[in-house]
Amino acid sequence: MRRLLREPLGVFGLGLVILVVLSAVFADVVTQFDPNRISPRDRFMDPSTTNLLGTDQLGRDLFTRVLHGGRIALYVALVSTAISLAIGIVLGLIAGYGPRWLDNLMILIFDAMKSFPTVMLALALVTLFGPSLTAVMVVVILVNVPGYARIIRTQTIALKSSEFVTAAQSMGASTGRILRVHILPNVIGPIVILASMDIPVVIAIEAGMSFLGLGVRPPTPSWGSILNDGFANIRETPWIAIAGGVPIIITTLGFTFLGETLRDVFDPRLKGR
Amino acid sequence: MLVYATKRLGLAVVIVSVAMLLLFCMIYLIPGDPASVALGPRATDAMKEALRIRMGLDQPIWVQFWNFYSGAWTGDLGVEVLSERPVLTVVLEQLPFTLALIAGGITWSVALGIPLGCWAAVKRGSLADRFVGVVSVAVIAIPSFVIAIYALLIFAVTLRWLPAIGAGDPGDLGDQLIHLILPSLAVGLGWVGYIARMVRASMLEVLEASHIRTARAFGLPERQITYRYALSIAILPTVTLLGVGIGQMLSSAVFAEIVFARPGIGRLVFDAILTRNFPLVTGAVLVTTVLFVLLNLIADLIVGALDPRVRSSF
Amino acid sequence: MSHDIKTGPSRRSVLAGASAFGAATLAFPRMSLSQDGTVLTVRSYSDLQILDPAYRLSAPEGDIMRAIYAGLITNEPGDDWTWTPYGVDMIEQLDELTIAFRLRDNIGFTDGYGQMTADDVKFSIERVANPENESPYAGDWAALREVEVTEERAGLIHLNEPFAPLWNSTLPTTTCSILSRAALDALGGRIATEPVAQSGRYLLTEWTPRQRTVLRRNPDWAYEPGGYDEIIILPIEDPSTAELGFEAGDIDYTWTAVSSIARMQETPPEGGVVVEKPSLAYVWLGMNKDVAPFDNPNIRRAVQHAIDTETVVDAAYFGAASTSTGIIAPGLPGHREANLYGYDPDRARELLAQEGVTDLSITLDILNQSERLTAAQVIQSNLADVGIACEIKQNDSGTFWTLGSEDGDYWDQLQMIIGRFSMEPDPSWATVWFTPEQIGVWNWERFDNAEYAELHAQGLTELDPSVRDTIYKRMQDIMEESGQYVFLTHEVTGVLHRDTVEPGLKPNGEPLLGEFRPA
Fold first, then answer.
1. Distances from the Cα of C332 to the Cαs of C81, C141, C146, C425, C512, in angstroms?
2. What is the rounded CA–CA span in Å between residue C445 and residue C464?
C-alpha cells in the first residue's frame, strides 16, 4: 500500500476512484432533486446555483442524474466483473485440469466467442432480451469470461505438473481438493488484479450500450444514456453531453491509473498482457 | 514455416465455423419476423408465408445453417430479404469503408504511437517520458465512442475544421480522405497508448542489448542506432499488438460509423439486425469474423516469420 | 398507413450545426450541387429497396416511382388536396361506378416498349387489384370490377360499388403508376431494383446502394417538365444528420425532426427556409383490452384521464406540434372538434380507488425514437402521479412493427403502446386499421366494435362528404368511449429547403420531386 502511495499516478487514480465511489454512495445526500422528476417547462436550462449542471430535455436536474448514474456504473462494473471472474475461474480450472479433449473444445469455443466484435454481440443479445441492465451485464460477462478462463487455464496447466500437485495426487487427494487447495489460491491473485483493470472497460461497455439505447431503460440515469440525450439535443445545449461524457472519462481514467499502478506494484510480470 | 502456416489456417477455419454456429443459434432466438418487416403492414399471412418459403426461413434451423455454411464456401451467402440482392455483393460494397476506417485507425495509432514510444524510450526517466506514459494510459482508458463524440463536437461542430458526416463524395478521393480523418482518429486513438508503451518497452530492451552497445562502442551515431536497430525490433510486437487490436478496432469502427453516419460493415450489421434481415446479418458477420480471423492470422504469420521461437512453441 | 421502415435507430447521430454556435463558414468549400439551378439534391429517409409500385415498401420509393413512372393523375403542390393530370389528357367520373380516361398522346416507355396505351393502364390497375398478385395495395382497388379498353388510348374503369376514397387515396398515388404490359411480361415477375419501362418526367439513371440515387430529366417527356435537370437523392435515416448535411451544403431539401422545428424557426440555417406543414399522421396511446389490467374499462378510463396530453406533446416536440382530437386530422371529413375525456388526474385517482387498485404496474412499448421516448417519459410521470408504475420498453423497428401481430408471440402480453401511422388524404385510411378484421394484424389494441366496423364499410361507399363527416366523427367517438385510446397529436411536418429552391410539396409536406423548381 505504501508503495502504491508513492506513485503519483496511482494516488491520482485512487483519488478519482474515491471521488466517484463516494459521490455515488452519497448521491441522495448531496443532492435534493429526484433524478427522475420531470418538469418540461424548465428544459435545457444552463447551469446555475440550483442546477449545478443545468437541466435536460425533460427539465430534470443533470447533476443529480450524473451522481445516480455513478451508482449504476459501479453496480454493473462490480457485479458483472465478479460474476465473470467466478465463471471464468471455474471454466479455466476445468479446461486446465480436465481431459485434453475438453480443454481443446473449450479453447475453441472461447476463441470463437472472442472473434465477434463486442458491439455486434451486444446488439444481438439485446435484441434477444430487450434492452436492460441485465442484458448489459450478460454482454459484459460473455465478453470477459473467455479471457479470464484462458488465463486461469494457462496457469492451471502450468501448475498441474508442479511438484506439490503431483505429490497431492499421489497421496490420493480428490480433484476437487487439489483444485481448491493447491491450484486456486495460486491463480487467483493475478487474475483479480487483471479483472480490476477491466473495470473501466466494463463501464465503457455499459455506457456504450446505453448510448445506443440498448442498455438501461428510461428514465434511469446511466451516464451513457445521458450522453445519448446530450448528443440528441446538442443543438439546444452542450451541457447534457458534457454531463454525460465527463464522468465516464473521469471514472475510466481513475480506475485505469489505479489499476495500472496496482499491477506495476504487485506483479510486474503481468505487464506483457 | 509452411507447417506453421497451415496449422494456423486450419485452426482459423475451425474457429470461424464454430463462431458461425454460435451466431446462428443466437439469431434463431431473436424475436421478430423478417417477412412482416419486409412486406409491411398490408401483407396477408399467405404473402408472408410465401416470402418465408422463398427465403428458406421455413426450414428447420439446422438445414438453414447447412445451406448457409456450404454456400459460404462457394461465396454464396444467400440473398437479403428486402431487395433480394446477393448478400455477398451488399457486404462487399460496404466493406471497403470499414477497412478504410480501420486502416486509418492503424495509421493514426502508428503515426502517433511509434514516435511517442521512441521519444519516451530515448528520454527515459524524464518528464517527457512520464508525460507520454500518462497520456498512453489515458487514451487507453477513455472509451472510443466518447472520443468519437467529443472529437466530432469539437472539430466538426465547434471549430468546423473537418466534415461531420458521411464518407465523402464517391469518386473524389481527396474528399473521402478528409472525411476519414476524424472517424479513424476515434478508432485508432486508444491504440496509440498501447503502441507507444510497447514500442518504448521494446526499445528500452534493445537499447541495452549487447549488439547495440557494440555499435555504440564503434562510434555509430546515437540517432542511427535508435532508428536502424532498435526501431526495427520494435515493429515485431507492434504487429502482434495490432493483430489483437483489430477486433477491438472493429467494435470502435461500429461506433464511429454510427456517430459519423458513415457507411460500413458495422452499420450494415446494425441495420440488418434491426430489420431482421437475417441473411444479411449472418453474411455480414461471417465476413467480419473471417476478416478478423484472417488479420489475426496474418499478424501471427508475420510474427512467426520474424521470430522463430513462436513457431516452435505452437 | 404506410409502414415507415426506418433502417436504423434515429436516436443516434444527432449532430449540431453551426447555428447553435455561431455563423457558418465552411472551411472546405463543398460541391454546391445546386449552383446552376439544374441539379437538386434531396434527402430521403431510407434507401430504395424495390421499384415495383404494386409492392412499394416506403414513402421514399413512392416519391421516386412517381417521378419515373407516369400515373393517371398526380397531386398538385400546395395547401389543398387537388390533383392534376399526369398521364391522362382527360379523366372524368361518369357516374358512381364508372370513370372514363384518355391517355395523352406521345407518352413513351423506355427500353423500347413503345407508346403507353390504355391496355397498359388496364394491365397496371388490374395487376394491383388481383388478389393472386398479393399486392399490399390491393385494398386501394377493392371496389374494382375491371378496366375496359375502348380505344387505343382511352378506356373506362368499372367499379362494383361506389368507392369514396378513389380520388383521394387511390388515383393520385403510385398505386396507379402505369407499367408496360409487354415489359412486365418479359420480366416475368416483379420489378426489383432496376426500373423497367420508365415513362415519367424523370428517368432513374444511377443507383449506388445506401449512398445515392440519381434521376435525370426524361428527354422524351413531352409535357410539363420537372424543374431540375437532375435530382440526386441521398438516403439519410436520421433527420438530425440530414439537418447537418443541409447546413454543410450537401443537400438542398430535407424534412426535419419535429422537435427541431422550434429551434430552426428561431435561428434558421444560413440560406435555409423552414416551412411547417400540417401533417395527416396520427399518434396515439393505445391499450390492449385483452390483457390485464386493461380488460377493466374503468382502469382504461382512469388512464385516459391521467394523461396530460398538452405536456406530453409540448415536451416531445418542443412546442412545435399541438394535441389532437382523434385519428383524422383537420381538413379531412370526420375531423372532430374535441376529445371526450380530458386530463383529470383527480378523476383518475377516484376511478382507480374505486377499483381497489393500489400497485398497478404496466409496460409501455414504444419505437426507439427520441420524440417517442420523451413523450413516453412524460406519460410515465403522469401515471406515477396517479399511482401507476409504468416501465418504458424501447423497441427497435425490427421488433416494434411486429409487437401486436399474431404472427409473433407478444400480442397477448402487449399492454400499452404509443403508435403512429402515416396517412393518405382519406379518412378511411385511418379507420381501416382499427376494424375487427385487423385484430392481430394492425389493430394491436384488439379494439372490437361491430358498429365501428359497419360504419367503416359504410364510409367507403358513401359519397356525400357531409354524411361521411358524421360517420367518421362517430367512429372516433366510439374509439374514445372504449377507453382504449388517448389521442396525442398529428405532429407536424417540418421542411427545410434552400432559398434557391422552391419545393413542390403536398399539403402535408411530402415531396413531389417533379414539382421542385429553382426559385
1. 10, 21, 29, 7, 21
2. 31
pLDDT band at C32 (very low <50, low <70, confident <90, very high): very low
Sign, CA dihedral C175-C180-C182-C188, equals negative
Asked if the model's pLDDT at residue B314 lies above 70, the reply is: no
Rounded-to-integer distance, Cα C138 and Cα C141, Å: 6
- Residue C244 sits at the chain B interface (C-beta within 8 Å): yes
Amino acid letter for position C360: L
Name the residue among C12, C16, C392 with its Cβ closest to that of A217. Answer: C392
Chains contacting chain B through 3 or more C-beta pairs under 8 A: A, C
| Rg of chain B over all Cα atoms, to the nearest angstrom | 24
Q: How far is B190 from chain C (nearest CA, A)?
A: 21
Q: What is the DSSP string of B189-227?
A: HHHHHHHHHHHHHHHHHHHTSHHHHHHHHTT--HHHIII
Biggest distance spanned by C-alpha atoms of chain C: 74
**Pairing between strand C388-395 and C282-287?**
unpaired
> How much is the CA Rg of chain A, to the nearest whole Å?
22
Q: C177 has which bridge partners?
A: C71
Lowest mean pLDDT among B181-185, C391-395, C399-403: C399-403
Q: Answer yes or no: are the C-beta atoms of C68 and C198 closer than 8 Å.
A: yes
pLDDT digits (tens, 9 = 90+) for C306-349: 999 999 999 999 888 999 999 999 989 999 999 999 999 999 99
Beta carbons within 8 Å of B252's beta carbon, 6+ residues apart: B105, B144, B145, B148, B186, B187, B190
What separation in angstroms does the CA of B76 have from each of A189, B79, B300, C169?
Answer: 49, 8, 28, 42
Nearest to A108 among B18, B133, B293 (CB): B18
pLDDT mean across residues, chain B? 76
Helix (H, G, I), strand (E, B) or coil at C399: helix
CA–CA min distance A177, chain C (Å): 47
Q: Would the CB atoms of A212 and C398 count as touching at under 8 Å? A: no
CA distance C133 to C128: 7
Interface of C with B in 435-474 (CB under 8 A): 441-442
Report CA dihedral (B119, B125, B127, B131) to the nearest 10 degrees: 60
Q: Is C23 on the interface with B (CB under 8 A)?
A: no
Distance from CA of C141 to the nearest CA of A (A): 38
Helical residues (DSSP H) of C287-369, grouped into ranges: 297-306, 309-317, 345-354
A115 touches B: beta carbon within 8 Å: yes
Asked if C20 has any chain A CB less than 8 Å from its own CB, the reply is yes
C224, C200 Cβ separation under 8 angstroms? no
Q: What is the pLDDT along chain A (273 residues), one digit of tens a residue?
A: 566 667 787 888 888 888 888 888 887 777 778 888 888 888 888 888 888 888 888 989 999 999 999 998 999 999 999 999 999 888 888 888 888 888 888 888 888 787 777 777 777 777 667 778 888 888 889 888 988 888 888 888 877 777 777 787 788 777 777 777 777 777 777 777 778 778 888 898 888 888 887 788 888 899 999 998 888 887 788 889 889 999 999 998 888 888 878 777 776 655 544
Beta bridge partners of C418: C285
Q: What type of residue sits at position C248? A: A
Neighbors of chain A with 3 or more C-beta pairs under 8 Å: B, C
Which backbone phi and psi does C150 adopt, to 5 degrees? -100, -35
pLDDT at C204 over 90: yes
Question: Under a CB-based contact definition with an 8 Å cutoff, are residues C507 and C78 in contact?
Answer: yes
Whole-angstrom distance, CA of residue A231 vs CA of residue A228: 5
CB C212 within 8 A of CB C251: no
C172: DSSP letter: T
